[in-house]
Fold:
Amino acid sequence: MKFWKMNGAGNDFIVLNNLEEHIPAERFPEIARTLCERHMSIGADGLMVVEAPTQGGDYKMLFFNSDGTVGEMCGNGARCICRYGYENGLAGDVQTVETTAGIVTGHRIDQRLYRIRLNDPTTIKLDSPVEVDGVKYNCSYVELGNPGLPHAVVPYANLRNADENELRQLGRAIRWHSSFPKGANVNFYEITGEDAVFERTFERGVEDFTYACGTGTGSLVTVLTLQGKVSGQGVNVAMTGGTLIVDVAREGSAITDLYLTGPTNIVAKGEVTDEDLA
Structure:
């Protein structure tokens, strides 16, 4: 089967076009686990599958985490798949992508830069503290789309210089915290300037830090905008893999539109020959 390897700000994905491959749906979790293993196969944070639309979109995007679990949506993945859709003639400069969490609209800005309208926030809790090992951490909670993609937003002082192991242990503890029945992606952040933020995300399904998280970045800026800590317009969020820009439109405490802009990169195109999938 043919594949593309892409990344958006370091969040990397394998893309399969099932309009051509006709792979049985029950095989996708195994394919994701196998191909996303970095030392044994191609390696990626997740697998994206292009399928036929069922809700009037240009095509459907199925997303699987590297552990084979289904992901409701992926912001950086959606930006990458919009470029895939454009370059493979599935859609034009503006496209409608069906995801498990709802419709996502994509816009081509130039060859590598893509902007998407993220799923609407369906749950926002600005004050949702969690306790880990007797320490209470300030935390907010956001779900994007329906079913909601869960995100915890946690301030962390001097984040750039944080001890990696300590931060990972805390991220894992909050990810599995009983306050979040579905689990949560954990977005640690530090405000570094006017409309400038540094972020690290511990992602469920990957069970480690990723270089970037698009939906996490959108959730983070949603919280900071409602708290009055950023303007919500052209907010620059720096991560290990690069910088993403988030724009928030609001009416009072309601978020009406949430946009994510960032780079895409086509790393490789080829044929999967992994014998473990034979």
About this structure: The first strand starts at residue 2 and ends at 8. The radius of gyration is 18 Å. The chain has a mean pLDDT of 97.
